[in-house]
## 1
Amino acid sequence: MANAAAGMLEALGDPTRRQIFERLAGRPRSVGEIHKGMPISRPAVSQHLRVLKDAGLVIDRSVGNRRYYQPHPAALQALHAYFDRFWDRALAAFQQAAEQTAREEQKGKRK
């Protein structure tokens, strides 16, 4: 999972790809919808979508002659789990530091 998350994070390291990925958060969108208002060409949007798809971040489906893209639910779960590990570690370290501080304060009151 760490390798998959690393590839996803690398793909999202590009600001344009992040913007495209964020545009997909609300609902599936076609390349034309994604492209609207962006300072890059439609072929460039397609290239960025290919990188996101190769990283496992988006899935697509055909409807007529259009392709609709959306975030891959498994990718979102993998990223969530990846960041949760850091959050859990940070909370455990905070708890340990707070308990240590409380013990030291108790020792200081006893003297």
## 2
Amino acid sequence: MSAEPAKPRILLADVRRPRSEPALVREAQRGSADAFEELFRRHWRRSHRAAFLVVGDASAAEDIAQEAFLAAVRALDRFDRSRPFGPWLHRITVNRAIDYARARALRPEAEWTDAAAGSTDALDEISAELLTALRELEPDHRAVVVLRYVLEYTPGEIASMLDLPRGTVNSRLRRALDRLRPAVTEEER
């Protein structure tokens, strides 16, 4: 009689469930590199895409998104865990992107990179016409459009993120949409 090899027992503790964002933040605040890496994986794509759509340069957007994550790590001890991590990180990212875009506007020789040179992740479902129209907006207007229609924050959340009155956010959105309308209309044809 041959003995069958023992089947390995799978313990409930061995089955890894995805950790909640508040749990990851708590672990990251305690110094867990794994927890911060998981937060990075969850938020990288959206942060990079937001930065790219504000600055129009894939390389700069990558730098900005990385700097935003580093800034978040440095300030994590001051982060209010009762609030979601994503909006806080996106606020840091978009503010850095606005600062970069403003500084670049002071250097007229600096141009947006060709859309083909950008990251395909950053350009998913965005037509060349719409991207061109976005480029023509002021950085502050681009930022509210990206936060509202790409990252899907409410105007109230955007106002809080950018420390602006809600009326200012609504005004910037309206002006930006009025300028983008021809590109959007063209895209729908």
